[in-house]
Amino acid sequence: MLKWKKLIVALDLEDKGKIYNAVRKLSPKGVKFKIGSIAFTKFGPALVKTIIGKGIDVFLDLKLYDIPNTMKEASKTYVQMGCWAFTVHIKSGPKALREVKKEITAAARKLKVRRPLVLGVTELTSEAADRKSVLSLARAAKACGLDGVIASAKEAALIKRNCKLKVITPGIRAPEGARGDQRRVATANFAFAQGADYVVVGRPIISQKDYLKAAKGILAS
Ligand code: C5P
User: Fold this and answer.
1) Helix (H) or strand (E) holding 200
2) How many independent structural domains does the chain possess?
3) Element (DSSP H or E) covering residue 43
4) What is the 3-state secondary structure (H, E, C) of 7-33?
5) How far is CA 197 from the centre of its chain?
6) How far is CA 120 from the centre of its chain?
7) 85-89 and 58-64 as β-strands: parallel, antiparallel, unpaired?
8) Is residue 63 among the annotated active site residues?
9) Packing angle between helix 94-111 and helix 68-81, nearest 10 degrees?
């Protein structure tokens, strides 16, 4: 059984036609979609709202790393957009992280909507990282009330064992697949076996002609 509901497809595309094609082909499987700085800079909140308007979960991955006031005000707009989840850098510090959580909790209550999950970026999967520093960032995220972290498959089990947090894992590749700029890569099933709650997959799916076939292949790997 393929874990479709645990797949988040990164829509890192500059072509709106391709974005909507991927959404059309893959959303019936129950996957979620991630919009990052490429598509958001080009198409803005309108794209996010259109996808959410179809009843599909959107993970807005703009990796906030700023002063507390800027972070909390930006986060509030993500609640208004109706995002399922969004990212902040854990390194932005406890004051900023706590204020983000407080702000979005209040905003969601006021708007009577579901509060988005706040996910903290540990170390980018394109960089080498030592397990100790990833775990200490995950602990900091937990202490500040974050819901989960972004971490490679290689640290997922360690985080799951030590902190009750959701783990979202990018850097997913089939064994024979091109790594691109990613360094700490793993297959989808290795990530799930390590306890990852979701895997994030971009280029191995969106660079292919047949998105559905590519997604099946990556989930089977
Ligand atoms: O194309 P690929 O599968 O490498 O895409 C991975 C996605 O996950 C990209 O959108 C990237 O920005 C994002 N990401 C990551 N590493 C992190 C956090 C997010 O690769 N630590």
Assistant:
1) strand 198-201
2) 1
3) helix 37-53
4) EEEECCCCCHHHHHHHHHHHHHHCCEE
5) 11
6) 9
7) parallel
8) yes
9) 30
CATH of the domain at 157: 3.20.20.70
Exactly one of 25, 49, 63, 91 is catalytic; name it: 63
Which amino acid type is present at position 193? A
The pTM of the full predicted model, rounded to 2 decimals, is: 0.96
In short, whether 165's Cβ falls inside 6 Å of ligand 1 is: no
Atom 18 of ligand 1, residue of closest alpha carbon: 124
Residue 10 CB–ligand 1 contact under 6 Å: yes
Range of the domain at 88: 4-220
Please report, for residues 1, 33, 134, 216, the alpha-carbon distance to residue 7 in angstroms, rounded to integers and kept in the order given.
13, 8, 23, 10
What would the two tokens of residue 182 be?
């990613």
Q: pLDDT tens for the chain, 221 residues: list them.
A: 999 999 999 999 999 999 999 999 999 999 999 999 999 999 999 999 999 999 999 999 999 999 999 999 999 999 999 999 999 999 999 999 999 999 999 999 999 999 999 999 998 877 778 889 999 999 999 999 999 999 999 999 999 999 999 999 999 999 988 888 878 899 999 999 999 999 999 999 999 999 999 999 999 99
